[in-house]
Every structure is written in structure tokens, then in C-alpha cells.
């Protein structure tokens, strides 16, 4: 899986113990990356045993999901909601 991650990708590892992740932080990250020539932000959600050392070493950032336990299917929905809010913020649109 890691083989297909190129240098033009930014990889964010989502962990339960890491830097708190907010839509505002992601909005700033998106704006900062827009001028760097990077194509994608990849979010990696670990399974029951977390993420491998190889993934953690490749990650540009380690971000934390809210302090609740989510099955990975629900964690993906939480990530999508945070992305939606971040993009709206970066466009200057109101959140509500």
C-alpha cells in the first residue's frame, strides 16, 4: 500500500494519541499545501492494532480523532465531516 504513495502526497496518520485535529487546522493545512505542488492529502486510519511503524514513519503529520472509540467505518464519516468543514472554512463560507 505504501508503495503507491508518492512524494507529491501529504500523508496524515489518524491516531487516538496525537495532535488534536480541528477543521480550522486542516483548513490552514489545505491552504498551505495548495502552493507546494502536492496533489493529495492521504488520511490513514488504523485498524484495531493501530498503524504500522512504516506508515507512521512516512506520515507527514500525526493527527488525533476525538477521544472516543469509533469503528473504522464511523471514523471515515468523522473524517469526511471534518474535511467538509475545513473546505467550507477555506472558502470563507459560514459553517452553519
TrEMBL record:
Keywords: Methyltransferase, rRNA processing, S-adenosyl-L-methionine, Transferase
Pfam families reported for this sequence: SPOUT_MTase
SUPFAM superfamilies, per database record: alpha/beta knot
Superkingdom of the source species: Bacteria
InterPro entries hit by this protein: Alpha/beta_knot_MTases, RlmH-like, tRNA_m1G_MTases_N
Membrane-traversing stretches: none
Family per similarity comment: Belongs to the RNA methyltransferase RlmH family.
Protein name in the entry: Uncharacterized protein
Species this protein is from: Brevibacillus porteri
